[in-house]
Structures are given as C-alpha cells and as structure tokens.
C-alpha cells in the first residue's frame, strides 16, 4: 500500500557514471600532481603515477557538486577549483601533507553569473594571474595572492574588466573557451563563444584592449560551439580551435594568429564536410616540436 515504507538497498558498490570536465597539472612542477573534475562528482586529485593508487577528493570545495574549471599553481601547493553550477571559484592552499590550510573564494564581484561551464585559465608565465570568462564578460586578475586568505565573499581585489562580447541578435551567448600565449610573445589571448565567434586580444595584460575578429569569413561552422582553444606554447601565432557540435568540421589550425585557418580534422570526421556520425570533439593538445599536434 501507499503507507508501506520501501527499504532500498544500494547496489552501487562504488560504481560512478560520470565524465571528466577538466584536467590540470602544474607545468612548472617537478612533482606528478594531477587534478581532474567530474560532472556531478566534484574534483579528484593524485600525486602518484601508479595506476592503482586511489585518487583523493577529501578537501576540495566542490566534492559534492559538479566540477568545473581547475588549475594547479605554486609547485602543486595551490589548487583552483570551480563549481559549474554556481558562481564559485576557490583557491585552496595546501601544506606538505596535502591538507588544506586556507580556502579562499576568489570569484569577482559582479551581477552576472557564470554560464554553465564558465571558463578560467592561469597565465602560463605568471600563475598568480587569472583570465576569466564570466557569461559575456572577460576579466583578468593581476595578483590572486593578494586576496586575503579564507575569505568567503566575492571580491574586487585585483580584478579588472577586459572586454564584453559584442551584441548578437541571434540569442544567448557566452564565453566558452580561453587560451593565452606563452612564447615568443606573451599575453596574446584568444577566446571563443557558444555561438562560434572567435576573437584575439594582443597585450591582454594591459588596459584598454582591442577585440580583433578572427572568425568572420574563415569557413567556420555557422554558430558552432567553440569548446576549446589551444595555443602552441612555442609559437603564439599557432593555435587550434575546436567545435564540439555534431555534423560540422571540428578542428581548425592557424599559423598566423587567426588571419587564416585550415581544416585539420582529417579522418576524425565520417565525411570531409563534417557530415555524418562524426565525434563531438572537446579539446586538443600540442606535443613535441612546433610541427606536432
């Protein structure tokens, strides 16, 4: 009857169905720190290369929510974690035993909220500086370490407005991908949107900045979702942009800072024009020399 209580027995036994939303490591560290965020299952961390060593999630700010962007800084002693579903970014300072000694909210004070999966990255030359795409607006923090530790409120400290997406009559749009150059020219920033627009900012560490359109008449998918931008760390003019939509060409490469783009999807697509049962590409990476990807 309706009044009878049902006693459910969990048979999950540790089985989790999820997907990875971001992976981070400290490129300046000699340690094997890896941090991964999972949809609906928070952030997990390991410092071991052994495949059977359990990962840890005991101290991260989003362990019971949906993990978003993440980053590692300060030789592994600092972790940045975000929640994809609410307006939160936290800096976690760790001791030598990987225990949290300070948990600080570093989210900028603003009336707008993150879009689902709002993006941030650390400056590859200065891991105390952060670039953040918050809905339609791009921000930069010049020194995260100056935000007082253990703060629980949003902050204005060192956050500066950089740019806003130009208005688009087509509907809702947000910043969906960010990348910044390392060498030979630093602070060249590329960012894309959920409706397929792509911009470049030279000298993004300075204000004011100029938005340079590098998507118009480039052969990109119409209003495609830009899921990732990857700048070659050895060449600021060389970058890959990724579109995650089905039925479109997924990968484009530039070697002249966005003036020209070429399709490099190859046999990832079922058909040369991207039609068919092609994959949903999420991200790319550069490996080895300046000619590899």
How would you describe this protein?
The protein is mainly β and 293 residues long. It is 0% helix and 34% strand. The chain has no helices and 19 strands. The chain has strands at residues 20-25, 34-38, 42-46, 67-73, 78-83, 88-94, 100-105, 119-123, 126-134, 137-141, 159-164, 175-180, 189-193, 198-201, 212-213, 226-231, 239-243, 251-254, 262-263. The chain has a four-stranded antiparallel beta sheet with strand order 4-5-6-7, with no helix packed on it. Strands 8-9-10-11 form a four-stranded antiparallel beta sheet, with no helix packed on it. It has a four-stranded antiparallel beta sheet with strand order 12-13-14-15, with no helix packed on it. A hairpin with a 7-residue loop joins strand 17 (239-243) and strand 18 (251-254). The protein is globular and about 60 Å long.
Q: What is the structural class?
A: mainly beta
Helix content: under 10%
How many distinct helices? 0
Q: Kindly estimate the percentage of residues that lie in beta strands according to DSSP.
A: 25-35%
Average per-residue pLDDT, rounded, comes to 87
Task: Please describe the topology of this protein.
Blueprint: E1 20-25, E2 34-38, E3 42-46, E4 67-73, E5 78-83, E6 88-94, E7 100-105, E8 119-123, E9 126-134, E10 137-141, E11 159-164, E12 175-180, E13 189-193, E14 198-201, E15 212-213, E16 226-231, E17 239-243, E18 251-254, E19 262-263
Antiparallel strand pairs: 1-2, 2-3, 4-5, 5-6, 6-7, 8-9, 9-10, 10-11, 12-13, 13-14, 14-15, 16-17, 17-18, 18-19
């Amino acid at each position: 009857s309706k009044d009878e209580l049902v006693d459910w027995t969990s048979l999950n036994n540790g089985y989790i169905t999820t997907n990875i939303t971001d992976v981070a490591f400290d490129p300046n560290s000699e340690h094997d720190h890896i941090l991964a965020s999972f949809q609906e299952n928070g952030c997990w961390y390991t410092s071991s290369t052994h495949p059977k060593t359990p990962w840890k999630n005991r101290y991260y700010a989003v362990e019971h929510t949906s993990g978003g962007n993440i980053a590692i800084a300060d030789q592994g002693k600092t972790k940045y974690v975000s929640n994809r579903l609410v307006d939160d970014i936290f800096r976690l300072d760790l001791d030598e035993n990987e225990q949290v000694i300070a948990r600080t909210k570093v989210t900028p004070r603003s009336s707008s909220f993150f879009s689902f999966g709002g993006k941030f990255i650390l400056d590859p030359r200065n891991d105390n500086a952060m670039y953040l795409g918050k809905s339609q607006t791009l921000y930069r923090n010049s020194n995260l370490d100056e935000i007082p530790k253990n703060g629980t409120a949003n902050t204005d400290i060192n956050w500066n407005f950089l740019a806003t997406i130009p208005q688009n009559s087509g509907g809702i749009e947000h910043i969906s991908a960010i990348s910044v150059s390392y060498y030979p020219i630093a602070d060249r920033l590329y960012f894309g949107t959920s409706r397929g627009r792509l911009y470049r900012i030279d000298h993004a560490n300075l204000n004011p900045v100029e938005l340079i359109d590098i998507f118009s008449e480039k052969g990109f998918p119409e209003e495609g979702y830009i899921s990732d931008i990857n700048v070659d760390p050895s060449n600021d003019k060389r970058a890959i942009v990724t579109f995650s939509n089905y039925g479109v060409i997924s990968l484009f490469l530039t070697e002249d800072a966005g003036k020209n783009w070429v399709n490099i999807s190859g046999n990832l697509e079922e058909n040369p024009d991207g039609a068919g049962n092609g994959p949903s590409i999420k991200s790319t990476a550069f490996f080895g020399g300046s000619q590899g990807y």
